[in-house]
Design brief:
The protein is an alpha/beta fold. The chain is built from 13 helices and 16 strands. It has two domains: 41-155, Immunoglobulin-like (Sandwich), CATH 2.60.40; 165-421, Alpha/Beta hydrolase fold, catalytic domain (Rossmann fold), CATH 3.40.50. The strands form three sheets. Strands 9-10-12-11-13-14-15-16 form an eight-stranded mixed sheet, sandwiched between helices.
Length: 425
């Protein structure tokens, strides 16, 4: 079904009560989804037959400029399928074996190139363009022109951060203003065009401190974690924040979180990382964690913490799917019983990645299901999620207040120290 044929303080569910004044938001959403649906896609089927276990770097380049620019990057150790959504234009794809793991294609490192003499031409409504890459010792040497393009690709990254992966900012940056969270929900294409999505560092990387990756909820921004970031032990931990267009499908946002982590972990090489996520972000983080573990956990993921997350979905999202003039893609995934939700919690992350499940229970208003004022307890306390959790922790706070509640911050501090630092205080 097309997303066009068919609601948060910031959370989605209040939108079912949106007044007529919100009709322009639905119109903006429809326009953005129409445009995104017309984008082309490049599917890369990457394989390598080399005996080396070194990482392989795959780069998508914009071929429309005199000096091509690197746009997307993936790092893999295994065969991999990539699906990149692209605006209309012309593109190259470059791949090389990074034997010395310095994110540069050096002399003697195997490389290949797709797009000469015929560039990958993406047009509106042009569907999926398939690219098959086999990195093999028997490859013919690159032509001088191809070699120049490969070297331009490697020289533009990581010196020029791609898609805000590894960019250092602070929480007062304008990209974390509340309005940007609403933009990512109602106008995801504009959010992407403004270049807001990414995996950011809040300070320069320190190899002696463990990265804590913070994932906001629907309509939120990384600034929601301000109290939590301030409470982190700066001698032991550093905050990375994942910023994404929360109105889009949860599966796609989880996929981008994984691919961003693959790149940033390959660049910075921390021994371990943790995911801490709020509200709908908990579903994104859980889906990402399950994929990381299924792929052998090359990223060193060592901990997952979810806070007041709708683990069984949100009933009012189903109402949005049925009644809203335009359906926000995330509502499909948030609807109880959706295929996305059914696929979660089918396999445990243990023993390598313990999941700590925080639920909040301070209700606002009278009557109705027990909740934190936004997410009912039945959804926060999904039965199989409890069964797979290392611990389940209740906090007497509302849905947003759980992020700054003293009990949350103290419990989180102890969990981080025990499972990441190995020395509880």
């Amino acid at each position: 079904m097309s997303v066009r044929s068919k609601l948060a303080s910031r959370p989605v569910w209040f939108l079912l009560a949106t007044t007529l004044g919100g009709s322009c938001m639905f119109s903006d959403l429809e326009d953005d989804l129409d445009a995104l649906e017309r984008y082309g896609r490049i599917e890369v089927d990457f394989r390598s037959s080399t005996s080396s276990d070194s990482p392989k770097v795959i780069i998508l380049m914009d071929a429309e400029f005199e000096r091509p620019r690197a746009l997307r990057v993936a790092v893999t150790y295994e065969p991999r399928k990539l699906l990149w959504t692209c605006e209309p234009g012309e593109y190259y794809v470059v791949a090389y074996e990074d034997r010395n793991e310095n994110f540069r294609r050096d002399s003697g490192e195997l490389a290949m190139f797709w797009g000469d003499p015929t560039k990958i031409s993406v047009e509106h409504d042009s569907g999926v363009h398939h690219v098959s890459l086999l990195l093999d010792e028997s490859l013919d040497p690159l032509s001088p022109a191809e070699l120049q393009l490969v070297n331009e690709a490697k020289s533009s990254y990581p010196e020029q951060p791609l898609e805000n992966i590894g960019v250092t900012v602070d929480l007062e940056d304008a990209r974390f203003d509340p309005g940007k969270g609403e933009l990512g929900m109602w106008e995801p294409r504009e959010f992407l065009k403004e270049g807001l999505h990414g995996l950011y560092l809040l300070e320069e990387y320190d190899p002696n401190r463990v990265p804590i990756v913070l994932v906001h909820g629907v309509g939120g921004t990384s600034r929601d974690f301000e109290s939590m970031v301030s409470s982190l032990d700066r001698d032991r931990y550093q905050a990375w924040v994942y910023c994404y267009p929360s109105g889009l499908a949860l599966s796609g946002n989880a996929e981008y979180l994984v691919s961003s982590l693959e790149v940033l972990v390959a660049m910075k090489r921390p021994e371990r990382v943790a995911l801490v996520a709020h509200s709908m972000g908990g579903l994104v983080a859980r889906a990402a964690a399950e994929r990381i573990v299924a792929q052998g956990n090359e990223l060193g993921l060592s901990l997952l913490v979810t806070l007041a997350s709708p683990l069984s979905g949100v009933p009012s999202a189903s109402g949005g799917v049925e009644w809203a003039p335009t359906v926000m893609p995330c509502w499909y995934d948030l609807s109880p019983g959706s295929p996305f939700l059914q696929q979660l919690f089918t396999e445990s992350l243990e023993p390598g990645v313990p999941h700590f499940l925080f639920f909040a229970y301070k209700r606002s208003g009278l009557g109705g299901e027990s909740s934190d004022g936004t997410i009912d307890l039945k959804s926060q306390l999904r039965v199989n999620a409890q069964a797979m959790a290392r611990r389940v922790i209740g906090v007497d706070a509302d849905h947003v207040g759980v992020l700054s509640d003293q009990v949350t911050l103290e419990e989180l501090s102890g969990i981080l120290d025990e499972h990441l630092w190995g020395a509880p205080r």
